[in-house]
Hints:
Shape: elongated
Radius of gyration: 27 Å
Helix content: over 70%
Oligomer: single chain
Number of strands: 0
Amino acid sequence: MPEQEVEVGLAEPKHSEGRSLAVGLTSLFFILLQSACTAFMAISGLRLLVGIGSLAAATAGMKFLDVLHGAALRIPMELVAIAGSVVNLYAVRRIRRLRARPASQWRMKPASTKLLRSESWQIGLAVLTLLLVAVEWGFHVYLHGTI
Length: 147
């Protein structure tokens, strides 16, 4: 029996460009949303380190501060400490809000006491850092007349 070649043409599906664009943009939006959630979960272990680093930036030793007391170094260090504390507070707040949502309750196990204690420490360190920077600025204005 002779072999015959048969061409099979696959019909391409017809999609409207608007629908494809909407699906693509929606997919992109959800990928970005998932990436943000993944990033917060990935850096959750680093939050304590950020809090301690912010605290250390605000409360360095007195001799070291005397050397670095110039406004060119002191003010950026304080701004970094403030930024680190604010980011830390936002991350903990966001995680706690996501964890407390009714939609999250069924798929998440309750947070362990170790995790809650770690978050409490991070909040405490961030607030302490902000208070220490505010006190430093207050004393600096009182003693030197400027920030």
